[in-house]
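Inputs:
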Amino acid sequence: MHDDARPAPGPTSRGVPGAVAVPGAAAPGAADTVTVGSGTAGAGTAGAGKVGSGTAGAGEGPGEVPASASPLAAAGRPGAGAPLPRGRRRAWWVSALWRLLGAVVAIWLVATLGFAVLQALPGDPAEAALGGPGSQASAAALQAAREQFGLDLPLPQQYLNYLGNLLRGDFGISYGQKRPVVEVIAPLLWPTLLLALCSLAVAWVLALLTAVIATGRSRVAARLASALELVASVLPGFWLAAVLVIVFSTQLRWFPAVSDNSARGLVLPTLALAIPLAGYLAQGMREGMLSALDAPFAAAARTRGETPRGLRWRHALRHGLVPGINLSGWAFGYLISGAVVVETVFARPGLGRALLTAVTARDVPLVLGVTLVSALGYVLVTLLADALVALVDRRAAA
Amino acid sequence: MSDPGRTGHPDHGAEPAAGPAAPEGAASGAARPSGVGHRLRRARPGTWFLSACGLVILLCAAVPWLIAPGDPLAIAPRESFRAPGWGHPFGTDESGRDLFTRVVHGTRSSVLIGVLSTLLGVGLGAVLGLITGLGRRWVDAAGSRLIDAMLAFPTLLLALLLIAVRGPGVATVIVAVGLSSAPGYARLLRSEVRRVSRTGHVEAARMLGKGPLTIVWRHILPGALGPLLAVATLGVGQAIVWASALGYLGLGAPPPEPEWGAMLNAGRTYISNGWWMTVFPGLAIVGVGVVATLAGRRLSARWAGRGGAR
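Outputs:
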């Protein structure tokens, strides 16, 4: 799952090579021939088929970068360069609108899925609202709680109420804490975001260094960098956190074992989250850079007198950034709610831990609230990542 | 032929020094000997090392009592909190149980979880990916949004809900990890299916009047599955790590069971006076993860190449 490249369901996929080859004649008609196919396409695509698959971590990411394909292959599939599910090329704002609409639909689906799945939780929600099954609430109190939270209504009615409240920005009232869910979540947002952003930044620095070294000419350094990247990517974050605590808190006493939002307190949890992440990012970036270094344009740059170092930094790195950005979108979603284990080790407040306690306490509104907030974060960052990819790789923007 | 050994003569006929592999190579009729013996001798030392590590892990999973004969659950209160040394290479835990025995016996459930959950994830992902990849436009649009929503759905919540409904245990962890990895595989297969169905040989098959099922089964799937299987082998290591994280949160196998994540959870309480309780189970996870990932890379270099060339 680590290298699931971003979807490019919409306009950012590789409908582009055709346009690159024939800039003026990117006729919309060419983009519609998904199934029809012309006779010439068949001949060209046998070779072009090699392009998209990439190797291990490729997914669609590098395949999306037409530069990793040879220009010949790109030009060789005139009719085939049309993966758009919805046909012809549009103005950028139309595709952006489609994107947004898709995001809204995804959020609505998450809300619906969450609502449906939470019905499966065992136990009476009214009991949970009154302090759990052990509270031995009276039947009258249970009835009152049901009426208060609207649990006596039929399910479709409850669902519609819930959606309506969501549209108004009302997440309901937490059963456990008897406060609006928004009030419960709001103070947790900042610590979660802070940790996620710090980890992402550190991971990018580490990954860039590793990827550049791993694609370098020094054999020993490259080997070492790939080995480090491999080990880092399978390190369990929580175990790394525990080992860091043993070394730096218990033995050396440099950093506190319990984390707050101060700079000193952030170091260990950031490292624990960033190092495994850097492993993934470096993997994706290395693949992207390697395929770019194999491309004809790299040879062309070399013949123009570009130094090996300059080739890597000025030309190949750009192609490594694309899978890196795509992976970051996924990673951020993971950092929002998946950081729970690291938060547990360092006793940090955060959305992940809130989710854990809320599910244990059967606090349905709070669970839904955290779910929606983290899904929203994931979707927003994915959109942002797509925009960034379009910025780095102009062909994807077309 | 970069190999300096005596295998560098495939074109001159496998007559003199090719050893036992020669008849097979000659029998296959090709100029290049392709027998098993030949391939074994050409294997690099890295491959040998990797296979040896994989074998040890499989042995630990299949017959743990051969490697660690003790009982992983036997408690010995007098021997609690022994540091690693003779007799207890990994030390003992709070009840005096030997950690080495426990780590070895924990291999089975971890490997099982990793493999089974990946199979589940790939199976579900394949169904979703095929439907979205082959379906009409609106099917694809709806399916893709569903995949998006599943990706946006917090993984942890899925696991927590399953555990709340079914109770903790290995089976629950397998389902949870499998379900959460499915959308990623689905998305990958969708894009692969769409890529392959645009290639020339599929169009040719269509023009020849082959039925849709034949086209999918014989012409699209073989090309699209390669990258999926490659990524799936890489995913086994991730599944093991994620499952151990659930165990660490106390959501996996119940405590006395020798499960790596649960052992780490137990070690958390004694982190200041028993570092070995934290370090060794984690090293086991990392070791298995590295071996699984390396094996996945080897396989993916083959499968992705083969799948993509079609």
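Remarks. Chain A touches chain B through 86 residues (CB under 8 Å). Confidence is low (pLDDT under 50) at residues 1-87 of chain A.
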